[in-house]
Amino acid sequence: MLRVALSIKAGRITPSAILRRLSSYNRHNRLYQAFRELGRALRTEFLLRYMAEPAVRALIQAATNKSESFNRLVHWLAFGGDQIIATNDRSAQRKIIKYNHLVANCTIFYNVVVMSHMLQEMQAEGQPIDPDAIAALSPYITEHIDRFGRYSLEMDQPPPPLDESIFNTAWLPGMDREAVAGERSQRTERPAGPVQLPFDGW
Length: 202
Description:
Elements: H1 2-10, H2 15-24, H3 30-52, H4 54-77, H5 90-124, H6 131-135, H7 165-168, H8 177-189
Helix pairs in contact: 4-5
């Protein structure tokens, strides 16, 4: 197993090749048995941590809730045709799924922008904003969306400016504004990584 791990790390063999080789071996192969027992040990360790540590259970539950919320949004948006993909063509099926995810991501982006503007208005009025309340906001809300309404797209209309500092931290009355501003500047000076929209496979 150590040689296999070192070979993968060195780039001499790909993990997919190892998986194909192991799947073609019978259960009497020693390498197959070794990896199987290692997998059982790791799974047992994880289950013991899951039962013993409430923080691990809470983290997994939170991640599961986010995935399920996204899946419910995708399911809610795919209201046409009784939510059934009525084609056997794999390419067409993939397009339908990707387009459905695109609409879901656009809905999420719209919700985040609207909620951010509302938070900025509250902040400008001097109202206290609790960071815990911001953390509890969900971009998967659908109560304000009329799926069967009429929509006009104005492609030439630029979007209103958005102060991205609202995503970094919220200012609360009594906090040091200079300290908050310094923290924000340090965050903006960090190299920006790729932007990833929420995505969960079907």
